[in-house]
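re: that chain from earlier
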Amino acid sequence: MSKHCAPAVLAALLLAACGGDERDTNASPPSIASLEQSGQLPVLDRSDSLRGPDQDQNGIRDDIDDWILRLSLASPQHEALQQLARSYQSAILVDSGNKAAVHDVTTQTYRAVACIMARSPSSGAGANFVSDLKKFSANTKPRVRAYLQYSTALDGSVGKLPDGNGCER
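^ sequence. v structure.
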């Protein structure tokens, strides 16, 4: 093999090893519906209601509560995720003009994040849970707007990490 052919052969082998070919780059990403049907994403409430359905009145939307309970985790990890889900729900529902209420929700969220991080198998797993719950909680335009109003109300504020692991239970 000539030295001029070697780079082309090497590139082809690398693409084959990585599974890269022309068809992969042209494939369209899976739809949300197909990801929900496969179980890769939870089926989320998409109503215009900020609160969403919460039949058991535990402060967590039923769709998110269901997702948490379906995860193969120990009870302390489920409790940590539920604590964070309640805090995100509170952030969406809080009156962003009420500084004391915003502060209370922020304290609740700091505690819940600390609890998630303390009970997760790794910091990466904990960060993924925090990110996923935020995305799932603010999954509609009205919920995103409400969360952004809460976030804007925090502008310039300073928080304090909780003492201990932050867990309610």
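The helical segments are 6-18, 22-26, 32-38, 62-70, 75-93, 99-119, 123-137, 141-153.
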